[in-house]
Fold this sequence. Notes:
Shape of chain B: elongated
Largest sheet of chain B: 6 strands, antiparallel
Helix content of chain B: 10-25%
Strand content of chain A: under 5%
Structural class of chain B: alpha+beta
Number of helices of chain A: 24
Number of strands of chain B: 9
Radius of gyration of chain A: 35 Å
Distance between the termini of chain B: 50 Å
Number of strands of chain A: 2
Order of helices and strands of chain B: HHHEEEEEEEEE
Strand order of the largest sheet of chain B: 1-9-8-4-3-2
Strand content of chain B: 25-35%
Oligomer: heterodimer
Order of helices and strands of chain A: HHEHHHHHHHEHHHHHHHHHHHHHHH
Amino acid sequence: MxxxxxxxxxxxxxxxxxxxxxxxxxxxxxxxxxxxxxxxVFAFFVQLVTGFVLWTAYSPNAxxxxxxxxxxxxxxxxxxxxxxxxxxxxxxMVVLLALHLMQVVIDGAYKAPREVNFWLGLVLMMxxxxxxxxxxxxxxxxxxxxxxxxxxxIAGITPGIGxxxxxxxxxxxxxxxxxxxxFFAIHAGLLPALLIVFLAMHIYVFRRHGITSRAPExxxxxxxxxxxxxxxxxxxxxxxxxxxxxxxxxxxxHGGPPGADLGPPADPPAGYGAPRPEWYFLWLxxxxxxxxxxxxxxxxxxxxxxxxxxxxxxxxxGRWKLGHAFNVxxxxxxxLGMGLLTAMSLRADRGDQRYLAAKEEDQRTAERMPAxxxxxxxxxxxAVALVREDPYLQGPKxxxxxxxxxxxxxxxxxxxxxxxxxxxxxxxxxxxxxxWWRSLLVNYEGHFAPFEKAVWYQQALAQKAAGExxxxxxxxxxxxxxxxxxxxxxxxxxxxxxxxxxLAEFLASQSGRGDRQVDPELxxxxxxxxxxxxxxxxxxxxxxxxxHSSFEPGAKFQESDExxxxxxxxTGYGSVAWLKSFIGNPGTPxxxxxxxxxxxxxxxxxxxxxxxxxxxxxxxxxQ
Amino acid sequence: MSPPETAPxxxxxxxxxxxxxAAPLPRRGFLAKLxxxxxxxxAALVPLGLSLxxxxxxxxxxxxxxxxNVEGGARDGFYRVTSLAALPADGVxxxxxxxADRDDAWTHFAEEPVGSIFLxxxxxxxxxxxxxxxxxxxxxxxxxxxxAEYLCPCHNSLFSVxxxxxxxxxxxxxxxxxxxxxxxxxxxxxxxxxxxxxSERIPA
Lengths: 623, 204
């Protein structure tokens, strides 16, 4: 063995290299304050290793990026840990960079003859920030996508060549496949290569000048191995422990799944109400709020550029009498300013209802993804199609946007927001359920009372008062309101409770909703009651089918041009097919005919959007 | 690790001003080395270990199994291939595809060709099925009518109409015959892949 190693040393001189590496002299003894550089090298090592394995599972394209990251996170054994460590080690690296920079500046390690190494360090810092900028996009989730949109548009306002820079980075005028392939090539190809080259130079020059000791006489000199390496190793282990803790934090805090967060898939046409960069860029984000219009460039380019310039000039500034004090002061002031801006940004967001609502929707969508992926499956259109075509996610949004100007949904706008203005049409939260029918049958005018606040209703009443005879749903003298009044006493009688419930159950069964258990006995009793009008005590005045066209249990709605003379079809009432037809055009002769005052939404919404609302209202989506 | 006899050449004034290493007490040196080595090894091995664990995920998980979803669904691994009426009882091999849902990691493909077979009907309800995958290296064989043999385009393996390989074929075994069931006047085939390159048939 000895002979073999001698031979190897003779041919390579490896012993000298190893000796040089391990027995670096440390005047003044090993110290904890020297560990930051080593922890950064360690962090980079972790990123290289975890990054390579992530690379083996990641697919940089617009229909595969989010999907493959989801796969890593949820399907690959240990994938969540791998991605979590990569994600949080990236954040740790930024913190360690700041600490390393502080230590170097405070110790005056940037001064001659170490100027070049200081500059190399600054270049390394910019490379690491480049890693985080490009890495943030790669999961192709909403927050990464929109933060990157902002960042690349900022690059686009660079004077002169901004638009070209932007298109060069993005890979064209639109964000998509090419953006991902380019960002990934930069993130996993160019930047690691640059980092290795500059790190090698940084370490080489560092070893050339040796460590900067402020108190070389404090303790006897020692060597890198083992004294400083022990301290470095403990520090690296502490960094690793902190990162692992961060990975587990969601689980510790609220019992959620551990690992890095993955938002819902990027949906460019849908927009996003809460784009924010990574936390260490929040100060820049906040800074932009203070530079209106064309002055934006001051916040995006001038201020950070000047800051970097001062950093690069520190070795020269440090030659003056007060230069070192200025440098230390500048760095402290810069970190303080950044901290302050970050705090202001966080504070502003905490009180911003729109931001919080957007975050909440993001969360709701992200939490919905596993159910969608399990029940609907991701096809070649990617996971974003699941989001766009899910009634549970899109129904409330569409309802809030198009229906809540008149209707309410359990008192809110469908998406959970309480509106201050009064409703002018029925609350559809329990639409076509037995509750809906009980309320409608027993208290018709109360059920539709919001009409009275509608302009059209007041106009109709005014016309009526003027002796005209407008066609509208008249809550005072309409036929259905009359039926409800005539039968109210009988239906409210506790002895008739079962018959009332049976009628409601029978009518509700028309919706054929898959998410409700129907009691067939009750449905049958309801049908009998409607036919022979007999209640336990007394009887109904009239059957539904005396006016409405007849319908049977389990009957399916079919669109037709049949004229129901203002007595809406009840066949399949509340089913997806009925809702689609009704929302599309409630004024057809089959539905309300001339009595209708609701807009025909087929003029305003696509058939797919109408279907999403209909399926959401009918509970027709995977739970 | 002992330093070499000769001191390394001095590279800078800072490095040469002190001796190569200040000799600490030997015992403390050993403990420090042990501790430094252990701590360093743990810090390095944890990320390496978790990365390797994730890297070998494909060997632990067998995903992408075909979901059966063909005309009423595949029953017990059998896929409906064609109606019996569409297959003349002339003993001539005909090429068919197995259609099924397929999962490729995160993407689900509905009703796609997932395999290729030859069907050969020789009697009223006597049907033979052969996988088109050559048992040698998984290239697809084709039926050459002129010489009444299956030919593999990769290494020229030849198989008779009943799947027996010719003496000079590189294929280690005959074509893989698949189980056939005739149900409700339709031909159902139990489609499966076998390991290539082995003389024995081992399900893949």
